[in-house]
From TrEMBL:
GO terms for biological process: extrinsic apoptotic signaling pathway. It holds the Pfam family Siva. It comes from the Eukaryota. This is Apoptosis regulatory protein Siva. InterPro entries: Siva (IPR022773). One of its GO terms (molecular function) is CD27 receptor binding.
């Protein structure tokens, strides 16, 4: 709890209350993104259309933090963390 400017107790900070009402924009295409969808690598908000699922660790990544591997198995999306370990 915090004490407000008027001396009364606040249950949450005013900035947090205002941040809940603001919609987030996708870092790739600037569409409205769900606040739950964030890149596991850079923590930027991404919409469902721009999110990619890593084939190795199954984490959600954005297009900037992922690479596409066109190997013998076929097309695989890899996050930056998993792409380091792929030969």
């Amino acid at each position: 709890m915090l004490i407000g400017h008027d001396g009364k107790l606040l249950r949450r900070p005013p900035a947090a209350a205002a941040a809940e009402k603001v919609s987030k924009a996708c870092s790739s295409c600037v569409r409205t993104a769900d606040a739950k969808e964030a890149c596991s690598q850079c923590d930027q908000f991404i919409c469902q259309n721009c999110s990619k699922l890593c084939s190795c660790c199954n984490t959600v990544t954005c297009s900037l933090c992922s690479t596409v591997d066109y190997g013998d198995v076929g097309e695989q999306v890899l996050c930056n963390g998993c792409s380091i370990f792929q030969v």
